[in-house]
């Protein structure tokens, strides 16, 4: 193995390690916290998302400004962004996890392995559906994919006000729903670094800053769902000729996400040694096998349908990709709507 390849492997695991460590350390990995966000009872998840977006946007903007990276943009696929986001939102509420959170759950909740299995199956099923999806929902033929391209301005002209708006939203959320009350962690935001539980704002910021080493090491941004398809493709290759869709997930940079996800698993395990689940929290029965399988299937099928999971959408929002705003908004719309219908039955 040459030095550059070794550095890439170690680097991607390093990025994933801190990503998984940060998720576990602020307790957003707990299924109840994920579901409570969709029930508008707990705002840990939205805080970590807003801080993740802010730090990620700053990181990406700086790297682009100094021409240290070459950005690539996904085309706008309105209906796929909308439908895929809704499917992800439903799946997130069902299993209490998204693609990036499912792995950090495994060291504590062994039943979450079925969420991952369901996700791998969802990725495989989508792969066979992809030719139909591409034909039925083609990408929009437009000269722009991002907000800054639409207005024909520099990236930072849009991203700087965007970050400021996110920080303002975080400020008011923290004023109205303090993290130390939601987590019983009586400390300031950055003072939580010395505590068992971190503020979601601290964790989200660390996750967003991981965009810098991710881009510099592998040339791609942070995402979690491609690894599920890559793993499924590895198994399929042993038994059947692969569809073209799967072949792309057996090549770099898609395969890098397996290293990232493995690092996230290691990081969450390391964090769990210092931050065990709350007392009396059920760790052996957080969901039935069927529920976790269905939820896992939906989050990955939905992610591939929308061409990006929650983490991937946040990375894309950092570049102001229009489709990512639709996807992430649809995730919450789908999750909250399903939650309302489910609890009304």
UniProtKB/TrEMBL annotation:
Domain of life of the source: Eukaryota
InterPro entries on file: Sulf_transp_TsuA/YedE (IPR007272)
Cellular localization per UniProt: Cell inner membrane
Keyword ATP-binding included in the entry's annotation: no
Pfam families: Sulf_transp
Annotated transmembrane regions: 7-24, 44-66, 82-102, 108-129, 150-173, 215-236, 256-274, 286-305, 325-343
Cellular component GO terms, alphabetical: plasma membrane
Membrane-topology annotation of the record: Multi-pass membrane protein
UniProtKB keywords: Cell inner membrane, Cell membrane, Membrane, Transmembrane, Transmembrane helix, Transport
Full protein name: Uncharacterized protein
